[in-house]
Design a protein that fits this description.
By secondary structure, the protein is of the alpha/beta class. The chain is about 45% helix and about 15% strand.
Amino acid sequence: MKFLFDATVLQQSATGIAKATMGLYEACLLEESEIEVTAFHRRPLACSLPANIHSVQYGTYFPEFIWRKVILPKYISDHKPMIVHFPWNGNIPKKFINTIIITTLHDVLPLNIPNYFKTDIAKERYRKRVQTDIDRTDLLITDSEYSKKEIMNNFKITNEPLVLHHGPTIRKKRERILELNNRSGDYFLYVGGYDPRKGIEKLIKIFINLHGEKKITSKLILTGSQEYFSQEFKFLIDKGYSLKIIEEKGYVSDNVLADLYSGAKALVYPSKYEGFGLPPLEAMALGCPVITTRYTSIPEICGDAALYINPDNDNSFAEGLISLENDSNLRHELKVKGMKQAAKFSWDTSAKKFLNEIQKFKEK
């Protein structure tokens, strides 16, 4: 059985979607070693692929829209894979013949984020594009029950989306995890892009205030893309730097990120808009306590294993940070609950669901 997936997402620095795509296919190949998987892409990949996933870079000098409209369909027509998967929220060329088209629509959060669209026309354009991708799809996949519900509420769906939860994407030897977890961490950790919807500006503001009031002493380490979305946000970052309580690391390798998770007092994840929320799962799997919110998909992932705060209430937010700063028993309790919760999610389970669903199409 031949799989081809659009590897455009792997051309960027490792994102959650890139990690999820690789996690799924690595598990599929372990489940059924006879399948053939090809990653098709226009530009060089920003990551290495396992030896059993073929990499085909083709059409490099064509513009992106020509590559997607002409080059990709021609390659599929010539090589005739049974399965073609678009793992990065669609953008699918016109319907192919004798091919099962799979789309992973991770979320439709733009419809829920206030002021995401500058005009009604832009919002309608988004709706039309997503609906077109859905109409061109045989099997629609999403990351959470929350996202499934939102997709079904907002679009015309012939068949219900298949929910494939992510599994943890960072592996670390248990001995190393225990060694790091036994350290007395002097920092909180934020993982994710610099994006207003992630609540990072509020986090930094409260963190600086708590230091000024001498209610916490730990520093805050930030990882992920460093995009300063406002002058106020950049001012806060600079102030944290000047006080020596904030450290930016940008993108880091999985090994470095695993060490950061395992040595942190807690992951602080104050986002209100997530289709899944991979960092809390990564953190729990590595024994890192999690402080987060009850919005969108996050409680579905974290269960009762996180300390939940109201990101719109400064007192709630501050009290959560103070609790994890000072209460080692609470941190230990969340570590234990978190590792148990994370064990409910695995790529093996998702790969089996994925392959079983494809088998149903083959039998039609």
